[in-house]
Amino acid sequence: MGRTLRKTLARLGEHNLREIEVRNTMPIKIAIAATLIAIVAFFSAYTVETGNVAVERTLGKVDHVEKGQGLNFKMPFLTNSLEFSAKEIAIDINDLTPKAADNLSLKDLDVSVFYRVPNDRVSELFVKYASAAARGADGVYMPAYGLLFREARAAIYQQVSEIDSLQLHKQRELLQNSVLEELQGRLNQTDAGDLIITRVVVRALNTDPSIEAAIRDAVEAEKRLEAKQVQVEIAKKDAEIEIERAKGIAEANKIINSSLTAEYLQHEVNTALLRFADNDGSIVVIPANMQGFEMILDSGQLRRGNE
Question: Do 202 and 97 fall within a single domain?
């Protein structure tokens, strides 16, 4: 009996020990399971920033359905996601020294080219130009960046070569528009609608010192020419004024001559003689019979002079 009791008590002790062990290991198992779930969730969920899209790749195969902004899920460990910018992207091309139409090289040319890619075409461009994608400082990829950089550089050199160096500083807007059209035309040949150039900005345009001197000389010559043209216009106006003044004098003389009749002149002579007679102590010599005045008062001569 005593032996049976001891066995029973032993069995009860072992059962209690097992129960205690199970109770002690339950929190550990729960913790391990929670950790595993957290890890799986961590590698399954990801977020995409506003204006960007994500491209998923599972075991090397790219999913061509881009994932939009917000929270997204993927297969953990087997699928990785790459976030691409679908906003306007800037490409800064600096320190260019292209030759102008007159075969003179620029000292420095800095241009910024802006482009964007439609959201639903990012994955196709990623596959097509995988090596051309560039990763920004924020970790977001820029699709076909390398391709755009090379094509933009070529378009800039092409368009600068069609403008004289002396005119480039005046033709910035023309250069910007022509580079945009040239670059968009190049891209449309292979990727029409996938790569869109939104704008081109010439940030700096510095010509060679010899070109700068030529520009200054040209500006000075142009200003001298403008001054000469002003002087010519002034001389023309002065000549026109003198002509009009001469016409006025001639017209006045014509009017005066038409009014100088023989009777009027005789009247003026008589008036002058009366004034001479009023001068005390003065001597006035008058030809006999006023014959000396006939030449002056010859009405025939006066009429011919008027004609």
Answer: yes
Residue the block writes with tokens 């924020």? 138
- Domain count for the chain: 4
Look-up: residue for tokens 């950790």?
35
Measured distance CA(200)–CA(227) in Å, rounded = 38
- Helical axes 299-306 vs 209-259, angle rounded to 10°: 150
Domain around 277: 260-307
Q: Are 175 and 128 in contact (CB under 8 A)?
A: no
What are the residues whose beta carbons fall under 8 Å from the beta carbon of 164, sequence distance 6 or more? 100, 101, 102
203 and 288 both lie in a single domain: no
CATH number assigned to the domain comprising residue 179: 3.30.479.30
Tens-digit pLDDT profile for residues 112-131: 999 999 999 999 999 999 99
Q: Burial code of 243-277, b = ≥16 C-beta within 10 A, e = fewer?
A: eeeeeeeeeeeeeeeeeeeeeebeeeeeeeeeeee
In this structure, are 197 and 177 located in the same domain?
A: yes
Question: At 188, is the pLDDT very low, low, confident or very high (cuts 50, 70, 90)?
Answer: very high
Q: Does residue 109 share a domain with residue 18? A: no
DSSP string, 169-201: TT-HHHHHHHHHHHHHHHHHHHHTTTSEEEEEE
194 near 117, Cβ under 8 Å? yes
Radius of gyration over every alpha carbon of the chain, rounded to an integer in angstroms: 52
